[in-house]
Amino acid sequence: MANIATIIGPGFEDSExxxxxxxxxxxxxxxxxxxxxxxxxxxxxxxALEEHVEVAAARATPDTYDAxxxxxxxxxxxxxTNAHVVDFVRAFAKTDKPIAAICHxxxxxxxxxxxxxxxxxxxxxxxxxxxxxxxxxxxxxVVVDRxxxxxxxxxxxxxxxxxxxxxx
Length: 168
Fold this sequence. Notes:
168 residues; alpha/beta; Rossmann fold; seven-stranded mixed sheet; two-stranded antiparallel sheet; 6 helices
């Protein structure tokens, strides 16, 4: 089964981590939480989840993982200033393995230079950033462009998870 790198930071959207993680684990996949520092305690935006980073992005390599999951919330905007996280996302994007980003998650893909020429969706406030980075933004519950899966909000979690599981 697959090992999924999942990037979290303070203020991640709780449901956008929990729902995909549960779906992936129920399908037999492993979910590994990556962040800025191994062992760091990270709280979700809604206060429902408190997680511990299992692997620091600085120590992670894309060849260890079969897919990348980027939950939204405030975390992607905060993490886009962390060079190690951005470097991991950039390197992972070059592998053509599945990448699933929901809500504000595409902000990390923008910072990593992985959006130009791609058709994507996101939370509406990220639209202009995606378009300015060369992406074609559409308002759809889930968009699959080759290996890239994007969704708008927690309301889209079912089709988002279905699309990720299908890619795996």
